[in-house]
Amino acid sequence: LTDTLAFIKHLFDGKSEEYERVLSQLNTSQSFEEANTLIKNIIKPDYNHWEGKEQYEERFMEIIESKFN
């Protein structure tokens, strides 16, 4: 829960509906590579490429990657 709240606040501008939308998009991915491409090319540009939020991005990506392992 702590991670979720931090992700919403720092990566998704405090918008839980945006976080949920992104998770839905990621759930359609067949592999981590596909999810990573989606994040890099579609999601991050919508949020200023998560500049200055690297620690949250790193944790978010660890969780996404673990979903596919």
Write the layout of secondary structure elements.
Elements (H helix, E strand, L loop, with lengths): L1 H10 L4 H12 L4 H15 L7 H14 L2
Helix pairs in contact: 1-4, 2-3
Describe it for me?
This protein starts with a helix and ends with a helix. The longest helix is centred in the middle third of the chain and has 15 residues, at 32-46. The chain is globular, with a radius of gyration of 11 Å. The protein has 4 helices and no strands. The chain is mainly α and 69 residues long. 12% of the residues are buried. 74% of the residues lie in helices and 0% in strands.
Question: Which key terms come to mind for this protein?
Answer:
69 residues; mainly alpha; 4 helices; 0% strand; globular
Poorly predicted runs = none
Series of H and E elements: HHHH
Net shape = globular
**Average pLDDT number:** 96
Q: Enumerate how many helices there are, as a single number.
A: 4
**Fraction of residues in helix:** over 70%
| Rg computed from alpha carbons, rounded to a whole number of angstroms | 11 Å
Query: What structural class do the secondary elements suggest?
Result: mainly alpha
Quick synopsis:
The protein is mainly α and 69 residues long. The protein contains four helices and no strands.
